Amino acid sequence: MGKTRKTPSIIDKPMNFCPGCGHGIIIRLICEVLEELGQDNNVIFPIGVGCSSNLGGGLVADRFHCSHGRAAAVASGMKAVSPENIIVSYQGDGDAYSIGIAETINAAYRNENITVVTVNNTNFGMTGGQMSWTTMPKQKTTTSQLGRDCDKTGYPMKFPELVASQFNIAYAARGSVHSPASINKTKSYIKKAIESQMNNEGYSVVEVMSPCPVNWNMTPVEAMDRIKNELIDYFELGEFKQREVIK
Amino acid sequence: MANIIKVRTERCKECGLCVVNCPKKAIEFEEKINQSGYRAVQVKNELCIACGVCYTMCPDGVYEI
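ok -> structure tokens follow
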């Protein structure tokens, strides 16, 4: 008899994501980690706008829907008034990087003691697949119908590398959900990020590469293959910054 | 080894990620549709080894082991 696996109780409700969407996996990983660390009744989720808003319907935990892009700023405020709570902001790439880049970067710059989980699906999913700052070169979206022209619109943004190289933060990593092995690895990244918040080390960010089959015009299995074959060559997986903790 | 795995078919959205990743090919789609209009998964219990890959890959919390 193997290990028992059960969906954590704070997320055990049906959610409205599209078939094959990676959000369901990532939310489950966060809740599993919180449950393992005994923090599942001590957490507040500042939730961004976009597909990540669907999280509100599935969660049985404290949560707050922030203005578009401002979840990191709201999270900073929550941590300031309620430092005993674990604050995990949950945002998409369009929310955290395109619209809310000022708030996301400033929270990292101030080294706020929060955890930011961003779901990178290389477009604005909920509004119909528009181009975002992480859209790949030549990728066709509804606002880049001939393929993204990076000479005019800039190159896809690598946020964890940026904050890890420039700012004094606690933890930065990028995971993916394209295979069981990568999902387990991503879970370990999220666990380290939340542990660093519990140890008051400062800002931690985990970006997770996630499929968007509907807006990529692919089947769920093809979308996972696109992550494996195309996206992780550019968005490299791994840990970019980790503090040495003196025990 | 009967019923070691619990399948909540009403949640299934027919994405097929568990079917592709199952190492024993023990998961298939059933013929009838669930209340959301998807052909839900069913597990062949005689092949299942309870490795948990389907639980790991499923975005919708269908499986419980």
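Chain A has one domain: 17-237.
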